[in-house]
Design goal:
The protein has 348 residues and is α/β, with parallel strands linked by helices. It has 15 helices and eight strands.
């Protein structure tokens, strides 16, 4: 495959001779769904796109990076899960000038590749990550000028290598009151909350340690490790912390300025419209359930929150408020009282 116009890497997988890249022809299909895989699914429903796909080596990503530079990343979104990051990515995707990649499995495959093959070096992963984001950021519409990437929650633990690959890209970490996150996860657990789905080495554990944890303890400690990783990088002066309760007003124009993206003072109606619907299920009107989650949380869940998460949450809050004070952010308050945008409620 020599002409990559309209082609997008949709999967990175292992074969006996190493990692391979699957490409699909998306043509002008934009990434407007809540998640990358949903847009890919729409593409593959077309019989021609399902049948006529291409497979290349990982080296092709580096070659494309040299021959066809795409949109450089304008901003990265990291998160602790169930804290409004999908709302942010959908607000960005509502504008035709933005390419938004949300929790793409090829990115996960690159970041975790060394756990499958220890011979893969950090330098290789950095090279692959740069090539992959360049391929995902190929301009397919004339108006596109900014690319944003929302990572999976556990990718926060890969922040050092991601920052090595893209040292100048501004990033944020979104977090939420622990009991609300645990309640959301109890209703529908994310893969990172289930022991064995991810390699325990990501969190600094081994298999025997994993077997000693209950399901609840595992989930609490996973969320704590993600928060601690963000906290460490934020304390080093990198990135910006965002509390769930600041959403959606903090996005426009505060975060847009943080990312260096062009924006008017007032949030466009196309973006504001997104906030009225459920971020992960846009067919539903959003209903704020934060208070209901807090009221319904059982005492055992509150105990785990106090044991594993409350300390990290309070430290994140301390650093966030210090960041706001030092930089003069008007968005320091979780109430967003000074926001010029409509009084929309945050989403889970």
């Amino acid at each position: 495959m020599k002409d990559f116009a309209g082609w997008v890497p949709i999967r990175i997988h292992w074969k006996p001779d190493g990692l391979k890249v699957d490409w699909a022809f998306l043509d002008d299909l934009r990434f407007t769904d809540p998640f990358f895989e949903q847009t890919v699914g729409h593409c593959l429903r077309h019989p021609a796109n399902l049948l006529f796909r291409h497979e290349t080596s990982m080296a092709t990503l580096a070659e494309l990076n040299e021959s066809s530079p795409g949109l450089p990343p304008a901003g990265f979104i990291f998160h602790g899960s169930r804290c409004g990051s999908t709302l942010i990515s959908r607000m960005l995707a509502a504008l035709p000038e933005n390419v938004v990649i949300s929790e793409a499995s090829p990115i996960d495959a690159v970041l975790r590749s060394h756990l499958r093959d220890p011979a893969i070096t950090e330098e290789q992963r950095i090279l692959w990550l740069r090539g992959l984001l360049n391929a995902l950021g190929q301009r397919r519409h004339a108006e596109e000028k900014s690319m944003f990437v929302k990572f999976d929650s556990w990718h926060t633990l890969f922040l050092p290598v991601i920052q090595r690959a893209f040292p100048s890209v501004p990033w944020i970490f979104v977090y939420r009151e622990p009991v609300e996150v645990l309640m959301s996860q109890s209703r529908q657990r994310g893969g990172q909350m289930i022991p064995g789905v991810l390699e325990p080495a990501i969190f600094g554990w081994d298999e025997p340690s994993l077997r000693r944890m209950s399901l609840s303890e595992y989930g609490g400690r996973v969320l704590a490790r993600i928060g601690e990783a963000a906290l460490e990088e934020a304390r080093a002066g990198r990135g910006r912390l965002v509390n769930y309760r600041q959403l959606p007003g903090v996005v426009w124009p505060s975060l847009m300025r943080h990312w260096g993206a062009d924006c008017a003072e007032q949030m466009p109606e196309t973006v504001a419209r997104v906030c009225r619907f459920h971020a992960k299920n846009p067919a539903l009107i959003f209903e704020d359930d934060a208070q209901a989650k807090n009221r319904a949380a059982p005492e055992g869940m509150r105990l785990f929150a106090r044991q594993w998460l409350d300390g990290v949450y309070q430290q994140l809050e301390t650093v966030r408020l210090a960041q706001a004070q030092s930089s003069g952010h008007a968005a320091a308050s979780v109430e967003n009282k000074s926001s010029p945008n409509p009084p929309l409620m945050p989403q889970s």
